[in-house]
Amino acid sequence: MITIALSKGRIFDDIQPLLKSAGIEVLDDPEKSRKLILDTNQLDVRVLLVRPTDVPTYVQYGGADMGVVGKDTLLESGTQGLYVPLDLQIAMCRISVAVRDGFDYTAAMRQGSRMTVATKYVAIARDFFASRGVHVDLIKLYGSMELAPLTGLADAIVDLVSTGNTLRANHLVEVERILDISSHLVVNQTALKLKQAPIRKIIDAFSAAVQTR
Ligand code: PRP
Fold first, then answer.
1. Which of 32, 93, 106, 182 has the highest count of CB atoms within 10 angstroms of its CB?
2. Atom of ligand 1 nearest to the CA of 169
3. 166 close to ligand 1 (CB < 6 Angstrom)
């Protein structure tokens, strides 16, 4: 049995053509069913639905043999115990700094000033502002980061931006791109040894599909 950990939403949708290239079709629709273990057309392949931040944990400890996870999550949680063979180039977005429309970000970034930054990506934000030599007070949030500058909780946020619609709808502006994000394939190192042939087959099919896109 090969178990693949995925998260619902964009990663689940974007991985379907790649799974198909490996001959795998998920039989349940996660938007309609409450099942967390989904069957596929292959009797020996199943899909687990987990939270995006839990994908590396499931794969690292062998709850799943492989998984698909955003680079944002990998940078925050680390890749200990994981083999990361492939950038799948799906669910593309970026991590950026955003502020309230009218906030003077350039002045706030001058050395000596101190900014409050709300984010789910504490490690990425800490490294970024440290590389600029700017002192920031970081506030950890778990979602709806856009609210922080609007309520006075923080001067800026560090968050994922895809279309930019969420920022625009909340009168925020993207002032700096920190890094580009895409989803990566992660594999449990022991599973790679014990189930080498079927796992290699999936990696190779994904790799070929990514290259021909
Ligand atoms: C992300 C991010 C933004 C939104 C950006 O949230 O936190 O809120 O997507 O996308 P856009 O630029 O296309 O509007 P997500 O939907 O992943 O949920 P989250 O709030 O749980 O992070």
1. 93
2. 14
3. yes
**Contact (Cβ atoms closer than 8 angstroms) between residue 139 and residue 62:** no
Q: Is the pTM of this model over 0.90?
A: yes
Ligand 1 pocket, residue 159 CB under 6 Å: yes
Running DSSP on this structure, what letter comes out for residue 112? Answer: T
Tell me, what amino acid is at 166?
A: T
Give the CATH number of domain 2-91+182-212; options: 3.40.190.10, 1.10.1420.10, 3.30.1380.20, 3.20.20.70.
3.40.190.10
Query: Can you give the length of the chain in residues?
Result: 213
CATH dotted code for 93-180: 3.40.190.10
In the chain, the amino acid numbered 195 is K
Atom of ligand 1 nearest to the CA of 168: 14
